[in-house]
Write a structure and sequence with these properties.
alpha/beta, 7-stranded parallel β-sheet, single chain
Length: about 1100
């Protein structure tokens, strides 16, 4: 064979092999650019390595660094974004004229951003450190091309001396020198080995290299210093960065953010902070709690926020409407305040008038005063308010907007977990929250279950510890992000607030710890007292309250008429028991009256049995009538309504189960005995010590009561009337008694005699006011500074409300004094006196049960915060850090400016013998902040801000130490923990909810059944679909219940589908469903979610010995 023929055959063979093994590769099936580069360096002695790329990443360089260790000549030519620079120049009215300095700036800005966004990984960091070292030592040469966008990607490999047997190769295609381009992205690259290709690529590279700009090596060192790779950060600098990042814009105090105050109002710094903080929370979460303690001006702050919102919410094209929902007693006060502040477009309605609103879409902002009154989601008033708050605002241009809600209330933490949840659900969807806990329903279910289990425990210390744990979770996860709250302690302990108040001559009295008034019971009276408490509360030997459980004991044919008969009966019995227990605490007089009424009502029931006719009347507001002691009125109403009210049942004795009549008789025996024994009690030790010792000697002493004014509270109207009569008989004749039926007519007199802010002529016609709870809200009584709680305010919110009447802005007294009564035994020393009083307090606690278990986490449940707690000692620890940071900014502005420029991910090593080999990371996304403590063994713990702040806190002189070997691994653990939690929340936002409760499933399944009805119109189908969506996200608490009630009501009685559909549409049409979006999440929203959930490492610290 001729040799030329041999070479043609050989060439053909090579051509054929091209189709068998392509030179193209796409990063798929492990055939990546990184592997190709590794192969070239492995099989060739590469002397020259040139790379021309549009984008360069230090992390990408790290991936190839190990292959080029022995390569003497390495050059990188990088393009810059000319289009971007041209656009920026044009925006400024300039022509883009590329120059070396601008090119360098653009390049290094990109490198710095790349370092900050690179994977937080030890290997990646080592590569970036190596890149910086290689640049500064001259290991690699790098230039920037300033004149044109470089889109080409060429990698040229050559041996030192040319030879015709494959001395090099060229890889070209779409991959930049980035980690993604090397092995992750789908790319299209090809390797060329022909000499002509290598020569052409090299010549082109050389030409561009000559046109390019050398980088300034000093910039590289600066990048290291300005990025998180800097190892010189101190613990003190990282601590300041932690605080600056956490508090954000709150650090900047702007006194001009609140302006245009009415005449007579002072611009107080704590109120300005509250306005700005509240406004920010409202705009982020659609609502918030305004819970500054009573007397700090919540009405004023609300008015200022409403005014700020008016001008920020589309003004002047849109003029916002504000609706204020208030208790009747507060309406006049709000009218005066909003008129003074000249707020436009507002309407004030009372709690019971929500159903009268004609156009819920009109209002942009809803302000709810005394919002804790809406804490029960089973009340119709709550349902009306929730529907109002969840109805979108319709503007004149046709656009829809979420309403904003301000809940003005005492601290939400004074309520039970389910009550707190219900208040939050007024502006948050229970399963689609803007908070860290995306599924609030699941979160609160865990806390509610834990709270209820505690009732079974007897150990008071265990109960106290567990309750604090429950409320700590609720506080950090829900209440704190949604609450603006300052106490007087906060104002006094923070220099900036205190100085501002002093300069403006605003003073708050010092609230002294409650003083105890012990009234001692003689031996016989004490025995009767203890026997009575036992009888009222002992479910075995005591009263069983059968009188109020009639429907529970009906036979099935009659009982089936009443839904939840057993539960209703138990509630009524409990109400009566609590009423009697509270009455004996209030006054013996009031207790005797209530006891006699119950005895007479019980006899009425026995008489009805004797006469053979028993009336059942569940729709006559029995609870209300009983709690107000109006049993006789109840009987009269039954007589009037028995022919018109279908729920009234006329029964015979045979309609009741065995045991009911016997129970009524047994209660009658106990009641008769108690009535007779109490009729023999003629002395009143509580009244005696009050008049003879306290009123006559202590309460009007000038050392504590300079104005000579006194406020007396009691829950019982009968007690206030009794006190008024007895005090007047004892010579105290300047007494004003205020209760629900005379409040309106007495308000002018009250203001003239007790309101320090009264603008007219102040009078002294009255020096004692005796009142029920009607004066515990919305009234100024601060010419007085002494309060007597004649009976115990078991609810801590109520106690704070009472104290707030005299502890207000404008008070002239230096101190507020509170006196509480406690029954005790006749003993000889103070220690026994207190011991016996506590024992009686425990007996009350047991008797009241659920009603007395509403206390804040800061209260001691042994004494309900009444016995030994300073009522105003609560403080906001976060505020201490914020105010300190503000002060530091004022004193050292340059320091704060420098710290604010520190990069994200700044980290530091610190010495600690207590938590060696551990790490704390501050991680954030757009939804939440997290502080994760990773221990040496890899276990984790979520920290609160305060817990994290205490760990990050550092002194100026503290030196750093190197990060320990587990640092990066522990940061990865923290990030994974954060990501896993966010994944669950992401599913909620994407409307994928695998954890529906049984009632939700039942309601949704029932609604699905209607979608198959042939007669269904498109509008009805859409409405049902939206109802399903509303149930899935937990928008309305009552919706699923209403749907399930319809299902239950029609289960036994078949109804035609068309009629049933009509009933369903009527039910769901009562809810504002028309603005609910249907279907799956949109692509834009999907992108929003990805961005919203992407975690960012803010700062971290690792500890070692």
């Amino acid at each position: 064979m001729h040799i030329s023929q041999f070479f043609r055959i050989f060439a053909a063979t090579l051509d054929t092999s091209i189709y068998m093994t392509s030179n193209f590769f796409t990063n798929e099936n492990q055939n990546t650019l990184l592997e190709k580069i590794e192969g070239v360096f492995q099989y060739k002695k590469v002397h020259f390595f040139d790379a021309l790329v549009g984008y360069f990443r230090a992390s990408g360089y790290f991936r190839i660094r190990k292959f080029i260790t022995n390569t003497p000549k390495i050059r990188f030519l990088v393009g810059i974004n000319v289009d971007k620079l041209t656009y920026q120049a044009n925006q400024q009215g300039l022509l883009f004229n590329p120059n070396a300095e601008q090119s360098q700036e653009e390049f290094f800005s990109e490198i710095k951003r790349n370092i900050q966004e690179a994977k937080y990984d030890k290997e990646v960091e080592d590569g970036m450190y190596q890149f910086i070292e290689d640049i500064t030592t001259g290991k690699i040469q790098m230039r920037i091309h300033p004149k044109q966008n470089i889109h080409a990607k060429i990698y040229i490999f050559r041996e030192e001396v040319y030879h015709p047997h494959g001395y090099g190769s060229v890889i070209t295609g779409s991959s930049n020198l980035t980690e993604a381009g090397l092995e992750k992205n789908f790319e299209f690259n090809v390797e060329l080995r022909y000499d002509d290709d290598i020569q052409f690529a090299t010549e082109t590279f050389e030409r561009l290299w000559e046109e390019s700009v050398e980088i300034d090596i000093s910039h590289i060192e600066q990048i290291k210093k300005e990025s998180y790779l800097n190892t010189d950060f101190t613990p003190y600098e990282v601590y300041l960065k932690f605080l600056l990042e956490y508090f954000g814009k709150s650090i900047d105090f702007d006194p001009n953010s609140v302006s245009d105050l009415p005449k007579g109002y002072k611009k107080l710094s704590y109120q300005i902070d509250a306005v700005n903080d509240g406004f920010a929370k409202m705009m982020k979460h659609n609502g918030f709690f305004l819970s500054d303690v009573v007397g700090l001006g919540k009405t004023v702050i609300s008015a200022l926020i409403a005014k700020k919102f008016f001008f920020a919410n589309g003004f002047p094209m849109h003029r916002s409407h504000t609706l204020v929902v208030v208790p009747p007693a507060m309406k006049e006060s709000w009218e005066n305040t909003l008129a003074e502040f000249k707020l436009d477009n507002y309407k004030i309605i009372t709690n019971g008038s929500l159903h009268k609103l004609k156009d819920p879409t009109l209002y942009d902002l809803i302000i709810v005063d005394e919002a804790h009154k809406f804490r029960s989601d089973s009340a119709s008033m709550y349902n009306e308010l929730q529907k109002l708050c969840k109805t979108k605002t319709l503007r004149s241009d046709g656009s829809l907007h979420d309403k904003k809600v301000i809940l003005v209330s005492a601290t939400p933490l004074n309520n039970k977990p389910e009550d707190i949840a219900n208040l939050v659900y007024l502006f948050q969807d229970s399963k689609d929250s803007t908070l860290e806990e995306g599924n609030l329903q699941r979160f609160f279910r865990e806390q509610i279950d834990a709270y209820r289990k505690l009732k079974k425990h007897k150990d008071i210390n265990y109960i106290s510890a567990e309750i604090k744990t429950i409320y700590s979770k609720i506080r950090s996860k829900v209440v704190e992000p949604l609450t603006v709250r300052r106490t007087r302690t906060d104002l006094m302990e923070n220099d900036a607030y205190r100085k501002d108040l002093e300069e403006q001559n605003v003073h708050f009295p010092d609230v002294k710890s409650p003083q105890k008034i012990y009234y001692q019971l003689e031996e016989d009276l004490e025995k009767l007292y203890d026997k009575t408490i036992q009888c009222l509360s002992d479910t075995e030997q005591g009263l069983r309250y059968y009188r109020y459980q009639a429907i529970k004991f009906l036979k099935p044919n009659k009982k089936s008429k009443y839904k939840k008969a057993d539960m209703i009966s138990m509630q009524l019995a409990s109400i009566m028991k609590i009423l009697l227990v509270k009455r004996i605490d209030s006054s013996f007089y009031a207790f005797k009256q209530s006891l006699k009424r119950y005895y007479e009502a019980n006899k009425v029931m026995l008489d009805m049995f004797a006469n053979g006719t028993i009336y059942i009347a569940p729709n006559l507001k029995v609870n209300e009538l009983l709690s107000e002691g109006r049993e006789e009125e109840l009987i009269q109403l039954i007589e009037k309504a028995k022919y018109s009210d279908p729920t009234i049942e006329i029964c015979t004795p045979d309609d009741f189960e065995d045991g009911f009549y016997e129970g009524i008789k047994q209660d009658d025996v106990l009641l008769k005995n108690l009535v007779e024994e109490w009729d023999n009690v003629t002395n009143d030790p509580k009244l005696d010590i009050f008049i003879n010792e306290y009123l006559s000697q202590k309460l009007f002493d000038k050392s504590i009561n300079q104005e000579g004014k006194l406020v007396i509270f009691s829950e019982s109207k009968e007690t206030t009337q009794y006190l008024s009569t007895k005090l007047k008989e004892s010579g105290f004749d300047r007494i004003l008694t205020v209760q629900s039926d005379n409040r309106t007519e007495n308000m002018p007199i009250l203001e003239q005699n007790f309101d320090a802010n009264y603008k007219g002529e102040k009078k002294n016609d009255y020096n004692i006011v005796i009142s029920t709870e009607v004066l515990a809200e919305g009234v100024n009584l601060h010419r007085a500074n002494v309060i007597v709680n004649y009976d115990t305010p078991w609810n801590s919110t109520r106690l704070m409300q009472r104290i707030g009447r005299v502890n207000r802005i404008g008070s002239t007294a230096k101190e507020v004094h509170i006196f509480n009564f406690f029954p005790t035994s006749k003993v000889n020393n103070d220690i026994e006196l207190e011991k016996k009083a506590k024992m009686k307090l425990f007996a009350f606690h047991a008797a009241l049960g659920e009603d007395s278990q509403i206390y804040s986490t800061d209260e001691n449940p042994e004494t309900f915060g009444l016995f030994d707690k300073n009522v105003d000692e609560e403080r906001d620890e976060k505020l201490r850090y914020l105010m300190w940071l503000r002060q530091l900014k004022e004193e050292q502005p340059e320091l704060i400016k420098r710290i604010s420029k520190l990069p994200m991910r700044a980290r530091v090593g610190r010495k600690s013998k207590f938590i060696p080999n551990s790490t704390i990371a501050f991680i954030r996304n757009q939804r939440r902040d997290a502080f994760v403590f990773v221990k040496a063994d890899g276990t984790t713990e979520d920290l609160t801000f305060l817990e994290a702040a205490k760990e990050f806190e550092a002194r100026l002189e503290e030196k750093s130490i190197p990060l320990h070997d587990k640092h990066h691994e522990q940061i990865a653990v923290a990030l994974n923990l954060f990501a896993n939690k966010e994944e669950g929340a992401k599913l909620i936002l994407q409307k994928v909810n695998p954890a529906q409760g049984p009632n939700e499933k039942k309601a949704i399944a029932y609604l699905d059944g209607f979608l198959n009805i042939p007669e269904l119109t498109e509008n009805e189908r859409e409405l049902i679909t939206k109802a399903k969506q509303a149930i899935t996200t937990g928008k309305f608490q009552q919706l699923q219940r209403d749907v399930n009630r319809l299902k239950t009501a029609t289960k036994k009685t078949p109804i035609k589908p068309v009629i049933l559909l009509e009933q369903l549409i009527k039910i769901i049409s009562a809810y504002p469903l028309e603005h609910i979006l249907k279907g799956t999440i949109a692509p834009i929203a999907e992108q929003r979610i990805i961005k919203e959930f992407t975690p960012e490492i803010i700062i971290s610290e690792s500890f070692n010995v």
